Structures
1.
Amino acid sequence: MSELNLQEVLDFAIDLAKKAGKAISDGQAKRFTEGTAAETKKNSADLLTEVDQATEKLVKEAITAKYPDHAFIGEESAQGSESVPEGGCWIVDPIDGTTNFVHGFPYCCISIGFTYKKEPVMGVIYAPFLDHLYYALQGHGAYLVTAQAPEPRRLPLAKPTPLPSMRQAVVAMEWGSDRRSEILEAKLQSFRRLCGDPEDVEGGKMVQGIRSIGSAALVSASIAAGSIDVYYEIGTWSWDQCAGTAILREAGGVTVGSKAWTSKALASDSMFGTVPPEVLMGRKYLSIRAIGDTPQESGRAAQKRLIKEFYDAVVEFDPK
Ligand code: 2AM
Ligand code: CA
């Protein structure tokens, strides 16, 4: 595997993401014409379509033909107990944001991540209805290509600004598909503390806004772009996060895992290394955008401060 050409891996993944994007938009046009209803997985809020399955098949077959000795983890074929191998491993969500796809809300995408030596080193995210392509290769930066701006633009799109406190932050959080009361109570408490006016809500952080756009990958891409400040998620899987993590890290962002993992990482600064398998596969994620240095504080120190502040405010739970 020492001869693995990562630039070739990236070029192949970009080409594949565009082909998958065409399959996704053709699939939606057909479903809309025929008035097809979505099937459900674990409950009525967890959707699956034949387009998810056909797109994963297309992507998996292309990868297996090109890189027969690489591993493949895809949402539709995964058993949930996968681990990240040492060699090349493709971690793919054929449609991230399936609910949006079914409803015609354009925030859905194909997410193609790649790990090597157990680290996310490449990511490609393509949103076919927006025609937004995000990609990154470890050590070579993260980029955005759109129909309006076809020349690759380096991410973040603007020079990172300081982030003095959670009060200046726009936070992405989702309701998820697990709607049991225990989960909802934890989420409601987190939303309350993040939104709340501290004059009236104990521990209120009064963030500038909370957004739920329904695609983990596109939120991570927005963290990379600098247009969302913080992304907190429990319950998503490696295929929802792998590509996005690779992209946002190349744009100066940082992703940490559970509260327990993070408290150790904050003490040792290891959160600024690559995302380890226990975070990638751990189903608990907190990502923060690149933050500009100030005379008083480096951007990294600010990221650490905000991670602490955020984790003090939210209630953690274990996903099913
Ligand atoms: P999907 O569209 O591939 O299912 C919306 O909440 C985001 O979270 C989407 O990216 C969705 O991916 C993802 N997601 C997948 N499984 C989830 C789970 N069990 N709980 C919460 N979010 C999940
Ligand atoms: Ca999916």
Note: The mean pLDDT is 96.
2.
Amino acid sequence: MISGRVLMIEDNEQNAYLARYLLEGAGLSVTVQRNGRDGIASALADKPDLILLDIQLPDLDGYAIARELKKDERTRHIPLVAVSSFAMPGEKAKAMELGCAAYIEKPIRALNFVGVINRFLKPPEDPQ
Ligand code: MN
């Protein structure tokens, strides 16, 4: 089991449902926001341990969100993991250039997905 609080900015209900299922199953707590503006507000209010960022959203795209979060002192330390189905050449490079720590292609595959997220979360506190 891993621990931590994940903010997922994802407008697709099925993707959000699957990702939540996988992450909660691994021991993480998950908040979902459906658009960029709510996602940024939630990042500022809750200071999650990691943010999963869909690239195609109804208002801001994931790149714009990454830019905003990375220029803000309060959120720039939070690892961003881009999740996208674009599969366009250069998309991963663009996400990484904007400061994303990793890029995951949809459709999400269970083992790989949790493994990638886990890399950017600290191990749980020692109970002693
Ligand atoms: Mn989307």
Note: The mean pLDDT is 92.
